[in-house]
Amino acid sequence: MNTDTLNTETAEDPSGTQPAELRSRSVGTGRRALIGAAAALLLAGGVVTYGILASPDGPEPGQPVPTAAVSYEVRGSGTVQIEFIAQGKQPKSLTLSGSDLPWRKDVKVALGSEPTVRIVLDGKGGDAQCAVSVRGKHVQRSTAVGPYGRATCSAPLAAAQDTSGPTSENGETP
């Protein structure tokens, strides 16, 4: 071996017996570090994404949920099954079977949701109309006719733009 030129591969071991082994260890260690760093970045990105997607869009706990007064009505002849959505603080769908007409229900529904009433006439048929009103203003009406006739009425409520604005004692937004 020429001593005038220092070979960088054998700088630590002038006998030249370990350069390939040292080189393979340092390359393997570098790859492991790179893989570990990539895994850490993926994990951090996943945690951030989960935090964004899992965060509630609604008001903070303890804050009143902004709502609107909604009226459901079913009129006509026949016996019906009535399903309606009442979404105050917790969404709930209620079904009434064999209801006689006329029928009316006033509920508070969270802004950003879609209050809906569905009716199905029984096998004897009839003629029934459902209607939805929001804050006292008629929004939609639909008619079911004949045996097992069906109708659905809904009224999308705009989401609250600013929940820090005025609300009544029961959380209703004017």
Describe this entry's structure for a reader.
- The chain has 174 residues and is an alpha+beta fold.
- The chain folds into 2 domains: 16-54; 67-154, Immunoglobulin-like (Sandwich).
- Helix content is 21%, strand content 37%.
- It is built from 1 helix and 8 strands; from the N terminus they run H-E-E-E-E-E-E-E-E.
- The strands form 2 sheets. Strands 4-1-6-7 form a 4-stranded antiparallel beta sheet, with no helix packed on it.
- The termini are far apart.
- This is MmpS family membrane protein.
- InterPro entries: MmpS_C.
- Residues 1-25 are annotated as: Disordered.
What is shown here, in short?
The chain is an alpha+beta fold and about 170 residues long. It is about 20% helix and about 35% strand.
Q: Would you identify the regions where 5 or more consecutive residues have pLDDT less than 50?
A: 5-11, 162-167
Order of helices and strands: HEEEEEEEE
Name of the CATH class of the largest domain: Mainly Beta
Q: Please estimate the helix content.
A: 10-25%
The overall pLDDT average reads 74
Distance N to C terminus: 92 Å
What count of helical segments does DSSP give?
A: 1
Domain count, please report it: 2
Describe the oligomeric state of these chains in a short phrase. single chain
- The CATH architecture category of the largest domain equals Sandwich
Q: Tell me, briefly, the overall form.
A: elongated
Number of strands: 8
The biggest beta sheet reads: 4 strands, antiparallel
Structural class call reads alpha+beta
Transmembrane segments: 33-53
Protein name: MmpS family membrane protein
Organism: Streptomyces mutomycini
InterPro entries: MmpS_C
